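Q: I'm writing up a methods section and want to include an example of the input and output format. Could you take the sequence below and give the corresponding predicted structure tokens, formatted cleanly so I can copy it straight into the document?
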Amino acid sequence: MKHILTMALVAMTFIAGLQEGKAQTTYDKELNNYFVLTRNVPQLKAIILAADALATDDGEKFGEFHVVICGQTVSDLTNLEIMQPYLDMAKNKNIKLLACGFSLKKFGVDATKLPKEMGVVENGILYGFNLQKDGFLSITL
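A: Here is the clean output for your methods example:
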């Protein structure tokens, strides 16, 4: 009985770890992959311009570019008047725009109201650490 309880505890811990936002995908470490965590929607312009410049510099070595938006600024994400210029800039540039689920919950933002081009990660900080484990270069603004 003790062995069964131990195995159940190990299984539950493993499953809980997966649900905490562990990146399930392993990215191509031969490419230059980037991650930015920002707390300011207007910074998206500079971030997207930097991504574009890196893509030019890296050429075929340019891989993924993920941006997670967290903090109170997630309240702006449902406003298309604010977001549309950034969404247009990010389009076709291999930039993945994501919202932090913790921030959405904390500031009462309905994730279903986000633009369809955006994704949601449960925990933006954990997501960033997991990308770093996969070799992503990262910065927090």
